[in-house]
Amino acid sequence: xxxxxxxxxxxxxxxxxxxxxxxxxxxxxxxxxxxxxxxxxxxxxxxxxxxxxxxxxxxxxxxxxxxxxxxxxxxxxxxxxxxxxxxxxxxxxxxxxxxxxxxxxxxxxxxxxxxxxxxxxxxxxxxxxxxxxxxxxxxxxxxxxxxxxxxxxxxxxxxxxxxxxxxxxxxxxxxxxxxxxxxxxxxxxxxxxxxxxxxxxxxxxxxxxxxxxxxxxxxxxxxxxxxxxxxxxxxxxxxxxxxxxxxxxxxxxxxx
Length: 256
Fold this sequence. Notes:
11 helices; globular; 5-stranded parallel β-sheet; single chain
């Protein structure tokens, strides 16, 4: 049985990462660490906007806040933890935006405007992205013992909140795998249903089981669902979701 492990679970949108990490934490008794979701952070950091409406500097603020949370939560003197995502997820999502478009889930005409308005400043943001990659990858190599990567196996949840396209999601998945190979951190690609995933991960790392797997999954699903419901109940969340005027949408589109 593993005495100490700092395990990161990677995977892009709609791979079941939050439920998997929550259930794995419950089943093994190893604490789960994570950063708040983008939607949770935005209602305080940049109220009134959805992720699709953010400009590049606002995305920088969002990424730095998430990175700050990960550093704090993973450096709190915990001997073992299961990280939902890992620190270089923030770089992966920004790099994917540099390639696909700064707002990959926005309408096509917004993307077209952004490509033009971004020409004078895109070089600067790409340099920032490259630097963020160096910093977050170095941190990952220093702090994690191993990674588990969850591949894209499920359709993207049609909840209207995920600010991405399928192209963005696939590219993010490729960047995650490329980075793990580059960093030479031990990693395993683990697919299948959530019970199958948990069984495989527990077996690979010889983790303890303090709560039966099926029971752990049921508890995790309730916790993840409740977290989403709490967010949806916040008036600031609904304010951001309201349809904006054409003038305001054009204003968002014109700012890179």
